[in-house]
Task: inverse folding
C-alpha cells in the first residue's frame, strides 16, 4: 500500500459531513439535550402524578366501603333462664367446667360471650342452608359417666341441644357458625379439635382473616381490666398476625410448665392480647412471654423467637 492510499483510507474513516454538523450543533447549543430530557420527564411524571392524585381521592372511599361491608354482630338480652345455661325449653344442662361449645365437622366451637344471643335479622342466615342439627347432649352424657362418647362426636353440644347449625354469612364455616334455637341466633367460634388436637396457628390466623378483620390489638393484664398498649396501624396488625401464625403447637403441657404457668399468672407475668374485630366482636389470646407460651382457644403454643425479640424490644419496656 502506497502512502497516498493509506491517507485516503484514513480520511474515509472520519465523520461524514452530516455527522460533523450534528457535533457542531451539540457544541454550539448545549441546552438542546436537557430540554428534550425535561420534556420526556414531563411525559413520564404527569401520568404518575395523575394516578397518585386519583389514589388519594379513591383510597379512603374504598377503605370506607370495605368497612361498611363488614356487618356488626350485636348481642341481645337473653331470657333469665339462659343466663344459667338453660335455654327456654331446652334440654341441655350446662356443666360449668365444660363451658358452652359444640362439635361440628371434626372441630370444636365455643359459643361467643358465654352463649349470648345475637341479632342476625337481615343476615339471611336460613338462605345459607342447614349444616346440621345439634342432637347429642355432652353434659348429660358426662353426668352418666360419658359412656356414649358424645364429647368427641360431631353435632354434640353442651348448649342449645336441638339447635340448627347454619353458615354465618361473611365467615368461613371452619371459623364461625350460627346456631338457631327457638327464634334466636347464637354464634360459635373455632376453638379446637374434637379429638383434642391443637389447631395449627397459621390455619387459625388465616380462617379468622385477622389481618383484614382486626381494627386494633390491645395488650392487657391477665384479668383483662387494664389496657397497657394498643396497636391500630395496618402494618402492626399484619406484623402481629404473621408472628402469631409462626407459633408452634404444643400438644400437652408438662407438670413443670403448669406450675410455672400458675406462678406467672400470680406474679402478673401473664397477659391478654385482645383482637378487636371490625364486626364488633373480639378474639382473646393469652400470652406468657417468660415461658414462650401462647393460648388460642383450647390450644397451647410455643411463641416464635421473632415474637419474643419483638416483645423484649417493643413491649417489655412499656408494660
Result:
Amino acid at each position: 500500500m502506497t502512502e497516498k492510499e493509506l491517507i485516503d483510507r484514513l480520511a474515509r474513516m472520519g465523520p461524514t459531513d452530516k455527522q460533523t454538523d450534528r457535533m457542531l450543533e451539540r457544541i454550539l447549543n448545549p441546552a438542546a439535550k436537557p430540554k428534550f430530557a425535561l420534556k420526556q420527564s414531563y411525559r413520564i411524571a404527569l401520568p404518575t402524578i395523575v394516578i397518585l392524585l386519583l389514589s388519594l381521592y379513591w383510597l379512603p372511599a374504598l377503605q370506607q366501603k370495605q368497612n361498611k361491608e363488614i356487618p356488626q354482630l350485636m348481642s341481645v338480652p337473653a331470657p333469665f333462664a339462659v343466663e344459667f345455661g338453660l335455654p327456654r325449653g331446652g334440654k341441655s344442662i350446662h356443666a360449668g367446667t365444660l363451658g358452652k361449645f359444640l362439635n361440628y365437622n371434626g372441630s370444636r366451637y365455643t359459643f361467643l360471650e358465654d352463649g349470648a344471643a345475637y341479632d342476625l335479622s337481615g343476615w339471611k342466615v336460613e338462605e345459607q342452608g342447614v349444616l346440621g342439627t345439634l342432637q347429642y347432649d355432652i353434659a348429660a352424657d358426662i353426668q352418666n359417666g360419658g359412656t356414649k362418647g358424645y364429647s368427641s362426636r360431631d353435632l354434640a353440644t353442651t348448649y342449645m341441644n336441638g339447635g340448627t347449625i347454619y353458615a354465618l354469612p361473611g365467615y368461613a364455616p371452619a371459623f364461625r357458625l350460627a346456631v338457631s334455637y327457638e327464634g334466636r341466633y347464637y354464634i360459635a367460634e373455632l376453638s379446637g379439635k374434637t379429638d383434642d388436637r391443637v389447631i395449627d396457628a397459621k390455619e387459625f390466623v388465616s380462617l379468622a382473616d385477622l389481618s383484614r378483620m382486626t381494627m386494633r390489638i390491645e395488650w392487657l393484664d391477665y384479668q383483662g381490666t387494664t389496657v397497657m398498649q394498643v396497636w391500630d396501624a395496618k402494618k402492626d396488625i399484619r406484623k402481629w398476625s404473621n408472628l402469631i401464625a409462626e407459633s408452634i403447637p404444643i400438644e400437652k403441657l408438662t407438670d413443670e410448665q403448669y406450675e410455672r404457668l400458675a406462678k406467672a399468672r400470680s406474679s402478673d407475668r401473664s397477659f391478654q392480647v385482645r383482637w378487636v374485630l371490625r364486626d364488633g366482636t373480639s378474639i382473646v389470646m393469652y400470652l406468657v412471654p417468660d415461658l414462650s407460651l401462647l393460648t388460642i382457644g383450647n390450644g397451647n403454643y410455643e411463641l416464635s423467637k421473632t415474637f419474643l425479640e419483638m416483645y423484649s424490644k417493643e413491649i417489655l419496656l412499656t408494660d
User: Anything to note?
Assistant: The first strand starts at residue 74 and ends at 76. Residues 3-68 form one domain.
